[in-house]
Amino acid sequence: MKVWIGAVAVLALAGCANHPLDCSMGIARDDCPPDTKGYANRQENLNNLAAAKELQASKDDAQCQSYGATPGSDAYVNCRVQLDKTTTDLQANAEKEKRQRLVQMLNSQNHQY
């Protein structure tokens, strides 16, 4: 019985280890301490994502203004909403196709064996 209690205690403590090896090796996790490579990689990924979103927003802004819509007007807001919806739909379709290709690949591997 003491062995079981000890094993459970060790497993519980291991679950609280906060991924120290992963974070120190550079794997980006949400809970990596600030002084690790994983934290630095996560921050870089977040900064890249923010920069990409800002670039897309400036492109959308320029496109809507090229149609003659002034920022703040109903036409401008509608244009930005439509462009955002189009981008979201394209991303969703790309993810769907990616999942379908993965399923096809897994199914073809299962048939080989």
Structural class: mainly alpha
Form type: extended
Helix fraction, binned, reads over 70%
Largest sheet: none
Question: Please, what is the oligomeric state?
Answer: single chain
State the domain count: 2
Query: Tally of extended strands?
Result: 0
- Compute the average pLDDT: 88
| Low-confidence sequence ranges | none
How far do the termini sit from each other? 44 Å
Gyration radius, to the nearest Å?
24 Å
Protein name: Lipoprotein
Can you give me a brief rundown of this structure?
The protein has four helices and no strands. The chain has 113 residues and is an all-alpha fold.
Question: What can you see in these coordinates?
Answer:
This protein has 113 residues and is mostly helical. The protein has 2 domains: 1-67; 69-112. It has 4 helices and no strands. Helix 3 (37-66) packs across helix 4. The longest helix has 39 residues, at 74-112. It starts with a helix and ends with a helix. The mean pLDDT is 88. It comes from Pseudomonas fluorescens. This is Lipoprotein.
What is the element layout, followed by pairings?
Layout: H1 2-15, H2 20-25, H3 37-66, H4 74-112
Supply the key terms.
113 residues, mainly alpha, 2 domains, 4 helices, 79% helix, extended, Lipoprotein
